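Changelog-adjacent note: as of this version, every example in the card shows the full chain rather than a window. The one below runs 316 residues end to end.
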Amino acid sequence: MGYIETVTGRVEEENIGHCQPHEHVYITQTPALLTNPELRLNNLAASIKELQMYKKAGGNTLVDANPLATGRDALALKSASEVSGVQVIACTGYHIPIFYREDHWIWSTPEEELEELFVRELTEGMFLGGCYGWPSYQTDIRAGLVKAMLTNEGVSGRTEVLLKAAGRAAAKTGTSLMLHTEYGKGALEAIQLLKEQGLKENRILICHVDRQVEELSIHEEIAASGVFMEYDTITLFEFHDNESEIRMLRHMIDKGYLDQILISTDPTADRLKNYEGRCGMDYILTTFIPALKKQGFTDQEIIQITQENPKKALCR
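Full-length structure tokens:
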């Protein structure tokens, strides 16, 4: 029996319930907040209310997708989880460049030291801070997932170093890795590199491919490798409407990929109701799933996507 590592401790996999594997609960300290107002999720009371709304709608578990040194606060996430009753899985690893200054240690630390740091966060506990200097205060709250990213340049230079460190940390600890991509670009090369670090395909979650839902052969090509397709741009209407996303989901299910599909919202402040945004973290439960049912998706298909697949993707 596998388990899910949450900020309040281990949870047996059958207790995961409805799970959205790419959300953002609370972000603090990072320099990105200075120039990106949509990332200012730094009101803990508002974040807790958002989680309570998600819980009331039927949400049980989610992943907070900000890793070490990008504004993640392990103590705040634990408090938010305890108050709201939502099981929160936190991330170690690294993120996109906007979260770091040019002289940040993420760009210069040797690969082996990064790997060791990520492993410690998964097995001992997450560090606080790290946005401006090397993290020094370690909690006993363990991360349950590794976050990594690709830019438009794909697997090259420093990104290759970071991806190797993240991949080996995940492989050593039996943990999954979520990979930020730009529309899926470079995903196949990254999957191969991660496999070379000992990480199996079914331990990899590919993010953001549904930022485009017109050229579906790209989706099929990535899914054919055996990874999880984390479709996490629901409520990002600048990329697509619900009807287009639903057509894409139906296509991928009909192609045989039902067991590899995950859905989430990857929200920013302008899309969380308790930050005066337009949709809310409960949008999938209150609006999107009813839309799926109207389009003929069965209850079993929806349970597979929102409960069974997250269980397989996130358990250790």
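Structural remarks: The two ends are 9 Å apart (CA to CA).
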